[in-house]
Design brief:
Blueprint lengths: L2 E12 L1 H30 L4 H26 L4 E11 L2
Antiparallel strand pairs: 1-2
Helix pairs in contact: 1-2
Length: about 90
């Protein structure tokens, strides 16, 4: 059964502060997930997952870049339009 579904995850206009809160929460949730995965792997097998370690590094860099971007747009008193869709594919 191959099926693809699309969901509108976010759609709206935000201040930089609001945008930082929305995206920051999403990124933090992903960081927390991979941190728990690493901790769980350490408990079970004594090793860390390379994928989770790489993903954590990437997410932390993304978080820093987003913060920097939102701070710079906040200084100019800009609003930001977001539109984000998530695609989920069912694989056999």
């Amino acid at each position: 059964m191959n099926e693809t579904r699309h969901f509108q995850l976010i759609d709206g206009t935000f201040t930089p502060q609001e945008a930082g809160q929305v995206l920051g929460s999403m990124v933090k949730s992903k960081i927390d997930y991979h941190t728990r995965e690493n901790h769980s792997d350490m408990e079970r097998s004594g090793g860390k997952k390379a994928h989770s370690e790489t993903r954590l590094r990437d997410l932390r860099e993304l978080n820093a870049s987003l913060r920097e971007f939102f701070e710079s747009t906040n200084a100019g008193n800009h609003n930001l339009k977001f539109s984000g869709q998530i695609t989920i594919e069912v694989l056999d």
